[in-house]
Design goal:
alpha+beta, 6 helices, 8 strands
Length: about 190
């Protein structure tokens, strides 16, 4: 195989785009659609072939489907400075670490009716380091809905206002759905 440094970013992006097309996934390089495909593969889900299902469809507000239920994915790309938070390492001797927080923006959660639709799907937040999926958590749906409803009451004109934030220290808010064991062994 050719050394990856010999490829341009355009060549690598084009290869990813073409692989997505070959797998029937439209515009996989748009936004973070390719991350949804990675998460679906790790979780054994079937990713939606289009970026957005659109209002009025049964899969509205979701990115994939697990056997009987739709799934919404959010992801966070972390850098070196976030590793201590993810790995629960103290910055200095005799100090506590600050757990990593993962946020997900819910573009469609700007009406009560739209939020109600999110109550019928599962919610997964993924953590990517150097674009490698290292962790996926399944967030408690009741927590997601409560947070979205609280965000709705704050008002505003943007459809991108509604954010759900999960602090990994709050383990009662989620279950670990996937953990890249090799990566964790190498970095713990």
């Amino acid at each position: 195989m050719k050394d990856l440094r010999e490829y341009s970013y355009e060549e690598l992006s084009n290869a990813l785009y073409e692989k997505g097309e070959a797998d029937g996934i439209s515009k996989i390089t748009d936004k973070t659609k390719w991350r949804e495909s990675v998460m679906a593969q790790k979780l054994g889900h079937t990713v939606h072939k289009k970026i957005s299902a659109g209002a009025g469809k049964s899969e509205y507000g979701s990115d994939a489907k697990d056997k009987n239920i739709y799934a919404e994915y959010k992801s966070k790309a972390i850098v070196e400075t976030h590793l201590k938070n993810l790995l629960e390492k103290s910055k200095w001797k005799n100090t506590l670490f600050s757990p990593l927080s993962i946020s997900g923006i819910y573009n469609g959660a700007y009406t009560k009716e739209a939020i109600d639709k999110y109550s019928k799907i599962d919610h997964y937040f993924g953590v990517f380091y150097k674009e490698l999926c290292v962790l996926i958590i399944k967030v408690n749906t009741k927590y997601v809905i409560k947070t979205l409803r609280n965000g709705l009451t704050k008002g505003g004109k943007s459809t991108n206002l509604n954010t759900v934030r999960v602090n990994l220290g709050d383990t009662d808010l989620y279950n670990v759905a996937y953990k890249n064991k090799d990566w964790w062994c190498q970095n713990a």
